[in-house]
Amino acid sequence: MKILAHPARTALVSLALCGLAPIAQAAIVTNGSFEIGAPVGGCTAGATTVSGWTVSSGNVDIIAAPVCVPEAGADGTYFLDLTGSFGAGGGVIFQDLATPVGTQFNLSFYFGANPGWQYLSFPNDSPVKSLQVLLNNTIAGQFSQDTTGRAAGNAGWIQESILFNATSDTTRLTFRSLNSANGTVFGPYLDGVSVTAVPEPATLGLLGLGLAGLGFARRRKTH
Ligand SMILES: [Ca+2]
User: Fold this and answer.
1) Sheet strands (E) in 11-157
2) 14-44 per-position pLDDT tens digit
3) Which residue from 1, 147, 153, 188 has the least number of CB within 10 angstroms?
4) Contact 62, 78 (CB under 8 A)
5) How many angstroms is it from 89 CA to the middle of ligand 1?
6) Residue 108: DSSP 8-state
7) Do 129 and 179 meet the contact criterion of CB atoms below 8 Å apart?
8) Is the backbone of residue 84 left (phi > 0), alpha (psi -120 to 50) or beta?
9) Which parts of the chain have pLDDT scores under 50?
10) 35: number of CA atoms within 13 Å, CB side?
């Protein structure tokens, strides 16, 4: 309760950030924080549809504290347990992003892990929770957390990031749970997915060209 963000304070912080980073790029992920279409005040266990995303294998849980789990989201209210509920094979979600070829992008997301297996007994749950990130169906990263001894309510959120260069105008971004044993319900957590274009250092490039040109002109004059 003591760390609830005040809307006015949030607005001020946003203004301050805008002032500091006027060249920040717009995000191109739809519903990257899983707040759109989420059940108000509740949760959806075993969801096979997530607004903006395609659930291509298994299912996922769209969850929020304190109704479904004691852990709070990293970004807003709702987040995913990517393993879902009793789905054979674990959950896989993807979204196709508009990524002009040659543009560099920064993918960032919050990765956490459900420690609940220690408090509710399910036979097939592993203490280590893992997910894979795929770009155009190629593995771009794998992340794991060992939740052994972790208290209920501690999601262990870590902000991860991956830089990539777009090789096609559409990039398929996929998150795959690796906790996929049949009967598993406590998996990797995912929240706050964003992909932003990395601004090209155009100003630096022009400055460099200008300096090089100056040097060239000087050399010519001395001869
Ligand atoms: Ca969220």
Assistant:
1) 44-47, 49-50, 53-57, 60-63, 79-81, 92-98, 104-113, 128-135, 138-146
2) 444 444 444 555 669 999 999 998 887 789 9
3) 1
4) yes
5) 24
6) E
7) yes
8) left
9) 1-22, 214-217, 219-223
10) 9
